[in-house]
Amino acid sequence: MKRRTFMAGGAAGVAGAAVAAPAIAQTMPEVSWRCASSFPKSLDALYGPLDTMTKQIAEATDGRFKIQCFAAGEIVGAFQTLDAVSAGTIEMCQSPGYYFVGKDPVLALMADVPFIMNVRQRNAWLYQGGGQQLVNDYVKKYNVHTVPGGNTGTQMGGWFRKEVRTLEDLKGLKFRIAGLAGQVVAKLGVVPQQIPGGDTYSSLERGVIDAAEWVGPYDDEKLAFVRVAPYYYYPGFWEGAPTVHYWIGTEKWNALPKSYQQIFNNAAAANNLDMTAIYDARNPAALRRLVAAGAQLRAFSPEILDAAYKAANEIYDDLSKSNADFKRIYEHLRAFRNEEYLWWQVAEYSFDTMMLRLRQRS
Amino acid sequence: MKRRTFMAGGAAGVAGAAVAAPAIAQTMPEVSWRCASSFPKSLDALYGPLDTMTKQIAEATDGRFKIQCFAAGEIVGAFQTLDAVSAGTIEMCQSPGYYFVGKDPVLALMADVPFIMNVRQRNAWLYQGGGQQLVNDYVKKYNVHTVPGGNTGTQMGGWFRKEVRTLEDLKGLKFRIAGLAGQVVAKLGVVPQQIPGGDTYSSLERGVIDAAEWVGPYDDEKLAFVRVAPYYYYPGFWEGAPTVHYWIGTEKWNALPKSYQQIFNNAAAANNLDMTAIYDARNPAALRRLVAAGAQLRAFSPEILDAAYKAANEIYDDLSKSNADFKRIYEHLRAFRNEEYLWWQVAEYSFDTMMLRLRQRS
């Protein structure tokens, strides 16, 4: 308050400002960054929160901390973003860690791997369970610092041309699915396929593949899979709660004033919450439209889920034997998950169970 | 970057700063607020996020936007916080809307009322479903602007000296429970009691009351209810996802620079997410300790839940007849809730169901 009054004092105010200004200028430098996203703009619920966050950061700093955003492929390919940040070509990227599973399976653990946990449990692990600290200690080797920045919620299990009820039905099934999830279903006889999102519809239509997983109702609707592969399976057991991270070059992060780091952290956390809210708000109506367009909802059978769970645990065991970092972080994550579900079944899950039952009679 | 280089230029730099400084000073004024919480400091998972948020706001503004925090009763009583903000005695408060249900039942809708929704659905309604906008349009009559700032997650149904299985068991039961939830159970024959938290243990011990609800394992453990009322019921059907809001005097809010408003909003949202993460991370171990200390977990019977649901809907119907604002906002909330659960049972709930089933065999 004093400062404002002083500034209004004409010449005396200007003289006063000349003394005070260097401190302000030092703590609020002009910073201009470039951020490459691993997502196309068409996935607006994924890309949108990056756009929103950077506008909020600019507003919070009176335009002094500017981050220019680029969609996947504009300046860096979707899977090359981490390399570009590591090398210092760009200051930061928006990517889910499992996009780099081929480079390093430990990075999948910070996003999501099959049969882990739901969104709130994931956030509890990251923010309050020591998870994000473990992640940041580990990713130092890539010369980056990471901040959680979004989550889609549990994804769907994908679109299938024919029903799959038994393990026998999975044998030889050509399924567009990537990463560790692809390795899990491969153990059940599925043939995982890597196909860009834009080519998936025509591959399904021509029968080049039998099934494809993408995200959930809101995003899936845009690609019109319902027309050619109407059996819509759930849950996406490989993505209960995928976290999208921001990855920032370590030197660039450390060079930020504390105030900008704080503004960045809270903008990322606020938009982490908001990305989930966007999906949660838009998925119900999209699901209604998909069902009206012919989508046939199907739950994966216990036979398939049990076998996939066993296969996933075998993969985690194998990775843990050969990779001490994977073992350490996976075991931390799994122990946290087991405790979470112990509590979950008491209050949260029973509340949802009650509401689902009561709604049917209201 | 230019500015920093320029500033290092000695005398020329100081002259330059004298020109640029007034703009900075105008956009970053010194602001000093007082915030009264409705919670005691002993409820550290509820009060803590306020403390954290205000420190983050100070850090983000290089100490220029300072908010001094006071626990319930230090400068304003727990239920007088809104009046104090409305009157301009203090700039803001941290309170759940249902603390003011006696003053105005519409204010309970912004926090939680019986049989509504879970945390993610509540956040989706507030941030992406138009809910927070409806709330802020309504609370203008109290000369305040509100920002969501926390959520405990689904609470427990309370501690009972004896088991309650049937509606008959509820007749005449003296239960410490407040607000609309108290009205709901009163319709089932319960006699709601209003007792300060600190007096609840001795009331239970002496048999002055038969049961008491508080929050959930982490907070309940501190009050040691397990020693005198070991039957621990779930779910707290009247608090599936209570939101804590920040309430700010309208003029004070409007006088903030846009940058401070942005910093405040994201700090509140980040700590909304974090409060839930704190509870989710701490409740499992607290529950284990309570069970080891003798807590007997019990689910409310369908007979009791069905009757309570019917009673709640009767209360909503009555309030809707006499209060057009309640009707309008309640119906918006209910319609959103119904759509949310339609989607929830597909991906999210089936993911949790799967994990609870598989965990038992791992």
From TrEMBL, chains A, B:
Q: Does the keyword Transmembrane helix apply?
A: no
Recorded hits in InterPro entries, A to Z, give: DctP_fam, SBP_TakP-like, TAT_signal, TRAP_DctP_sf
Pfam families, A to Z: DctP
Keyword Metal-binding part of the UniProt annotation: yes
Q: Where is the signal peptide?
A: 1-25
Q: Name one GO cellular component term.
A: tripartite ATP-independent periplasmic transporter complex
Q: Which GO terms describe its molecular function?
A: metal ion binding
Enumerate the transmembrane spans.
Answer: none
Q: What are the protein's UniProt keywords?
A: Metal-binding, Signal
Q: Name one GO biological process term.
A: transmembrane transport
Task: Give the domain of life.
Answer: Bacteria
Residues bound to substrate: Q155, R176, E213, E239
Q: Which residues bind Na(+)?
A: W214
Which NCBIfam families does this UniProt record tie to the protein?
TRAP_S1
The name this protein goes by in its record: ABC transporter substrate-binding protein
Species for this entry: Phreatobacter cathodiphilus
Q: What is the lineage of its organism?
A: Bacteria, Pseudomonadati, Pseudomonadota, Alphaproteobacteria, Hyphomicrobiales
